[in-house]
Predict the structure.
Amino acid sequence: MQKKSIGKLSKFAVPLLSKGRFFKEKKTGLRNDFQRDRDRIIHSTAFRRLKHKTQVFVNTSGDHFRTRITHSLEVSQIARTLSKYFNLNEDLSETLSLAHDLGHTPFGHAGEEALNDCMRDHGGFDHNIQTLRIITILENRYYDFKGLNLSIETLDGLIKHNGPIKDLTKINRILGNNFFKKKINFTLNSSLESQIASISDDIAYNSHDLEDGLKSNLFNLNQLSNIPVLDKIILKHKKKLKKYSIDLIIRQIIRETINEMVSDVIRTTKKNIRLYKIKNLNDIYRAKNQLVTFSGNMQKFDKKIKSFLKHKMYFHKNVNSKTNYGRKVITRLFLKIKKNPKKYINIKKYNNSNIERIICDYIAGMTDRYAINLYNKIK
């Protein structure tokens, strides 16, 4: 059964039979290695917590705004579509998409900045490296090992989702020297599955933050009409305002925007594969450039929309007041817990001698509401 499906994959795909895991485990006939990885992510405590972690709006702001968990599901849907088109390892793309935000703190990027400030003299904080800590150390669900013991290819994809790692300083500071025991080649490029998960993240948050911003009235359609790509889509749908509600029109605009971005990635990636003469998986790993990219025009849109969202949404006074409150909560929790860690944390659970890192792991794992409740208790 598995051999047949392996034969169907493209020569660019990561094979369905993994190179292995850090700790040896028996194979199962029911699922391939990457389906097992995906299921381990979905069943993890860290994944469940994402439903109460901020994407942009603090989790207490409203029921229909996106949280980290809905964002991760939307990324995985886009990644599966792209992987299926290129006949790649869909299970790997899905796993990487579902896992990519596990390391986020409560209160979004404001929470990350606050925790990084608290950890300045103790190795710092980085949500991507925190994802690696969660899946290799902090999740505790098995008798024989710490972490989730994911496949080497999944680890490789999460570490290098933005391409090769030239500077290992941060990883060494937060995880420890030679943590991956030479099982990861940091100088090689990432798989197409990893590159797809990364660009799907961009597609999802550009389009969906746009939708959340419009629905919360932080900006309106007229303010978006000078952004390339979007301008034509908005013009087409605004003509239907007399017949349909603004909510429905916004949904159609977002659907079409996602479709434009996905179609652009497909065209550009095919072009890049031809341009760089990519013939097989080894060529992908040795490539000097990312292969899964936007075209020049779509890159302009990507830049413009990110800049627009930054100024009109992320820095909007209503959003800012909530995220500034989140900064305050995290800083206060860190200082308070540090005075008496054993009162709040079961230290034995954390296999680490550095007390600041233990506190950091504890706070990073909190949901928005848990952090707020604890803050109100101890302030």
